[in-house]
Amino acid sequence: MSDWKDICSAKKKAQLASIPPEWIIQMPPKSQTNVMNVPQDCGLLTARELQITETTDVETLLKKLHSSEWSSVEVTTAFYKRSIIAQQLTNCLTEIFVERALQRARDLDEILKKTGKIVGPLHGLPISLKDQFTMKGLETVMGYAAWVGKYAELDCVIVEILYECGAVPFVRTNVPQTLMWGETHNHVFGRTTNPYNRKLTPGGSSGGEGALLAIKGSPLGVGTDVGGSLRIPSAFCGLYTLRPSYERLPYFGAVNALEGQESISSVIGPMTNSMSGVKIFTKAIIDAKPWTKDPLVLRKEWSEEAYRLSEHGGGKSLCFGMLWDNGVVRPHPPLQRAMEITKAALEAAGHKVIDWEPHRHLEIYKNAETIFVADGGHDYRAQCELSGEPVIQTMAPEEEAHESELSEPFVKYLVGEPEHRSAYGLWQLHKEKRELRKSHLDHWNRTVERTGTGRPIDAIISPAVAYTAVPHGLNTDSFYTTLCNALDLTTSVFPVTFVDTKIDKPQPPHAFHNHEDEAIFKLYSTDLFSGCPVGLQLIGGSQEEEAVIAMTEIIDNALRVYKA
Amino acid sequence: MSDWKDICSAKKKAQLASIPPEWIIQMPPKSQTNVMNVPQDCGLLTARELQITETTDVETLLKKLHSSEWSSVEVTTAFYKRSIIAQQLTNCLTEIFVERALQRARDLDEILKKTGKIVGPLHGLPISLKDQFTMKGLETVMGYAAWVGKYAELDCVIVEILYECGAVPFVRTNVPQTLMWGETHNHVFGRTTNPYNRKLTPGGSSGGEGALLAIKGSPLGVGTDVGGSLRIPSAFCGLYTLRPSYERLPYFGAVNALEGQESISSVIGPMTNSMSGVKIFTKAIIDAKPWTKDPLVLRKEWSEEAYRLSEHGGGKSLCFGMLWDNGVVRPHPPLQRAMEITKAALEAAGHKVIDWEPHRHLEIYKNAETIFVADGGHDYRAQCELSGEPVIQTMAPEEEAHESELSEPFVKYLVGEPEHRSAYGLWQLHKEKRELRKSHLDHWNRTVERTGTGRPIDAIISPAVAYTAVPHGLNTDSFYTTLCNALDLTTSVFPVTFVDTKIDKPQPPHAFHNHEDEAIFKLYSTDLFSGCPVGLQLIGGSQEEEAVIAMTEIIDNALRVYKA
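ok -> structure tokens follow
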């Protein structure tokens, strides 16, 4: 019975058993790739539950919760039911604990009723959590067969703070084995699909969150990002996110891949359907003084001054640098159109957009990717060996995989076989990283000559990925995202538009940057991507959470006005 | 001629030649161990130059400079002459560049005269720099024969900012080979001695600064600290210092030992004879927004609110934890008396002092020391091999070394032979480190039950070293300092008193913690330490520069009132 396959199927069976039978829906045919309308159509949700779950603005949700217009029990029930629909459609969940979450919601309703006071800024709000955030008494599997049955003795610090803030953690969400993929599949829980098109990946590694939030099965989720894991699924699923700087938000007590790797720290951040969700979550966590609980977190209060863009001319007339093409992979036509829309919208709103010249992009990427495999893969091999499960070599499905032009991802060509470095070898990579960070900062500062604002550019706008969601197994680009991890740049993702095959026509071939660029160019075929969300990144400086949120709000508003 | 000994003696000869011959003094006899009075007695300094250099309060110095009461040229000349006296007495300098510094001072005087405006907050102030801070066009030897002739092409960021602030970098100061010693000796420049007693070490690795500042050959110096290198010489030489948190002040461009080691980052900080010097320097550098030049520096403005102790009850009634004995080495009697004086002074000023229970002190120390040698010594061996100079095995002088009871420092017993770790092995040390930091933070927070203030203790007061300056070769204790590097706790050092053999009598033996504790106990013999300065550490939280400065000012004032 200790065969890893048995462990996985037993866990999967237990997961199924944790779903209230009355929440099992009639499944749409497998051939129905877009399942975004199922929650409205399947009949499980009442009209009021549909109204609640369609309230994507977190500020509005919280107002209704805090005024007792909606109780936490009904909000939690509504999102729970919808998350279970999402689970049946996209396989996005890991831990399901309905009664525990509802009891928490009942307790909060009771307190509000009795005292007239909310417990904290997130009072009553259901929050989904990537399968890294340990909760006392629950398993934390994180995609490894060997971790099944590993019950947490403590809440991790972010969960502890979420409870203090009045939140209702209510589901945990799927991840890829090793966490180091931009897709979401593992042997325990299987593959998560994209509700816009189930033949496509929702991205990863916070891909369970991506699929769940896209279908509005949660108002706000918490994910992590070491190379793009918040931003790739946010871009592929039409969401907002923030990749904060290293150690701004508390990671302590959460499990992780490559634990102890501190050269390029993984960070936690929100994923949600509104900028208000991004701001409210980030401010709530920082206002809870996480440095009093997690010794690695920076003692840096939320700054309303920074949020008012005091270092960016008060936000009146910003200048952005547009990264049209990073010189590694040229963005697909929908991404190019998204950048053009954003530029036009910002200009219409009185801001300026100049070209951003990529600076040593490949060198920075290579340094980061070399650091990520500096243990020669020892960490993930060791976790797999514990149960005997094989290390997954490709995210492509065994059946019906989309054929790819790409024989070997460019990163493998660039970095070569993972080499287990010595500590001294790792220090040399750090020296190189420091020099690259300085060089990039100086390059950024030199834009002061071109902005006309008296400041360097206020932020970079860039694709998060060169394409929209791709078929399972084909997401190889983390070139646009990893830059920000390597340089520790605060970065958001915001949705701009959807792929429109009538407008986003294939372009003639360009002089390809490399073999992956060529394969990705060839992948663009409008019938694959139709209707997929298109998102972009906003890249600010290190520890600029407040300013990046404010600038993303400015862009978001400009886009709304422009499109209206 | 490329024999390392020839390189060293040629460099030493060039150094001597860079001293204006008229500044060569009549040396006191070698038997005169205390040379603190030589600057007053030797006749090189005019009465006005004596007055200038005896002005140990940096705020006063700056007022006189900024009001043009004293010109930068005369202040720089006065300190330069006195630094050259210090050099002849204690061998504390490396690079000497009189004309360059005086030209800078002339330029500043000119600007002030012409415009009526100061260039920046440090206008006109001579500042000494540890031999890591590269200056364009000057060599940076850092104690390695192989680095002789290595001329810097750029100023490091801290020097760049010091220039922007109007400072006059005027000498560079000696360090030990490898920087990883708490004393100061290398093959190029030789040994630096303590002006209070030349048979004793000034400490290290910022020991050149220590000796220079003790004898008032500089009003303010900049050193670095990865395990105690600012604090050990400050304690041994009667100075004030601040060990800031990782990445609060800019290190970029400075050379270093173990470059690329980022597990426990080395930090830069001021050393000086006044708390005003510590505050003015720290605030000036942070106000210059160093994160716009050094990508690793935290974007964290100087906070007047934190300086007013907003998180410490406004500083009205603080509660300190006193670390009487860390359980590794018991402090010598003068240190115990210093702690008793400080406790009494604080209580007299309306504050509270409770006992601090050390928490996993040795585990934390061992983790840090293991990280420091995670390259198996590869880094320093490689630097020595470049020239063929041997790696220094002991700081004891070849002649007239003080006999020691200690056959092997406890750290060697604890850590064993340096083992070159793998990257994965280093990550495991990081995991251990994180757990230790969390455990120590929780321990700190639990003091809320004992303080009576509603807060955990505001800071810890502790020895910096278990003893005052010791004979060359005998400084083995970094147990009290390394704790703060490992946990990234903001820490100051402040002087309390001097060893008084009439009061500081040897104690009866205690139950020794270990063999080093026993040897250190036996070392205490009042004739060795008579008249030596006794300093203590104030240990605050991470990124608490403002609060630690404010609390040290409170202690400093309380001591002044108490002693009066």
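Chain A is about 40% helix and 10% strand.
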